[in-house]
Amino acid sequence: MRQKPVKGIKLYNQAKKFIPGGTQLLSKRPELYLPNQWPAYFSRARGVEVWDLDGNKYIDTQASIGACILGYADPDVNQAVKNAIDKGNTSTLNCPEEVELARLLTSLHPWSDMVRYARSGGEAMAIAVRIARAYTGQDKIAFCGYHGWSDWYLASNLASQKNLDGHLLPGLAPAGVPRGLTGTSLPFQYNKIEQLEKIVKKHKLAAIIMEPLRYQEPKNNFLSQVRAIATKHKTILIFDEITIGWRLALGGAHLKYKVNPDMAVFAKGMSNGYPMAAVIGRERVMQAAQRTFISSSSWTERLGSVAALATIKKMRASKVQTHLNKIGRLFITALKKSARQAKIQISFEGLPPLFIFSFNYGVKNQAVNTLFTQEMLKRGFIAVTGIDVSYALKLEHVKKYCHAAKEVFDIIKKAVAENKVGKLLHGPIAHEKFKRLT
Question: What is one Pfam family matched by this protein (predicted)?
């Protein structure tokens, strides 16, 4: 029988005394999901199964916030990493695998010529921005989407606290970002080409940075129009593939839409949970890295390159993207059917490999979201209102998840009708956005 995750809750309360915010990644804060109830920590993980500190086993549909596309502890990737550890992770000399990975990445993206590495998405985005500014001699960035924690990105909220509200995380404060960066990062909305056109008329840009897509598909040749604007105004087009990359195509999502950037940034899923990131680009642009200073000891360790090589090779051999699309479609179809049967108000966004759903109950939405997560956790699922499909998710998991979701949808329907959503919650409502923890 599943127990209350007492050990995880206790450890998290201790963590907040030693770690600002409690966790290293904002998206893993328990308050965002199920305050005072979330397991918070895992003892082990395999495939889509996760065990908490109390020994409870769950099916995890979030793939570590999308980082483990193959699933947890993939045996092929792990074996490659173990072999590399036995050979030695680092030395005064460079590891040959970084050259092999560069060849593989540029072969998958024939428009690109050169590669620089990092070990996280935020680092890689900072590298891409530095290279673009070095190449063009310009400072300003037009951006669309979520691109991490760096000064260049948060600088947008120096001009207006609401500039980033439409780019995944509202409420991000630019504390600690130099005021001198005000006006250097300019947001535009996805599929709103007129907003980007307005920006380029008023500003000379170092780069246009955007996610090729997240939950919306491009309309009216949006990506091609952005590419044309970047070319016309001699600015660098950078695609942030950190979240969507490797899900829609073997390589970047931009390959599906046949629109090539000047640089593309990868992290997260490219190495199935091991720290690794890459910036790929055209030679004329990438060589600008030589005219500035971009360097780190950690970028030379062996495990990231080895994990990425093993992950990408398995994706190719196993046709992982086909599986992600198939399983995602099964999820969406079954969840829509369950929602219709329960007669609840719900909408879906995104593509099969990465999608979200939203309850449409106005001011009650966040309470309903919390109730959904609470009831799914009782049934053995690490679940929020969306799924990051992984290769380890199989038909049996789809059936179990959707059966549980149908039960929870029925609970939600009755709770809303009787105005009892709050009474069914065993703790506070989950936080809606970024909030400082004290």
Answer: Aminotran_3
Helix H or strand E segment including 226: helix 222-232
Q: What three-state secondary structure class fits 287?
A: helix
Contact assessment for residue 2 and residue 401, using Cβ atoms and an 8 Å cutoff:
no
Q: Among candidates 260, 212, 217, which has minimal Cα distance to 236?
A: 260
Q: Which residues pair with 237 in a beta bridge?
A: 208
Cα distance between residue 353 and residue 287, in whole Å? 35
Tens-digit pLDDT profile for residues 164-181: 555 545 667 788 988 999
Residue 437 has pLDDT above 50, yes or no: no
pLDDT at 21: 93
332 in Cβ contact with 393 (< 8 Å): no
Span 362-370, mean pLDDT?
Answer: 93
Encoded tokens for 326: 């198939």
Residue 205: helix, strand or coil by DSSP? strand
Superfamily per CATH, domain 6-73+320-424: Aspartate Aminotransferase, domain 1 (3.90.1150.10)
- For residue 34, which of 373, 386, 364 has the smallest C-alpha distance? 373
Give the model's pLDDT for residue 434.
55
Query: Any idea which fold 96-300 has?
Result: Aspartate Aminotransferase; domain 2 (3.40.640)
Residue 144 has φ and ψ, to the nearest 5°, of -140, 120
Has residue 435 got a pLDDT over 70? no
Q: 278-329: per-residue pLDDT in tens?
A: 999 999 999 999 999 999 999 999 999 999 999 999 999 999 999 999 999 9
205 forms beta bridges with: 140
Residues near 435 by Cβ (< 8 Å), separated by ≥ 6? 31, 171
Mean per-residue pLDDT, 50-69 = 97
CA-CA distances (angstroms) from residue 331 to 234, 328, 334, 337, 395? Answer: 43, 5, 5, 10, 9
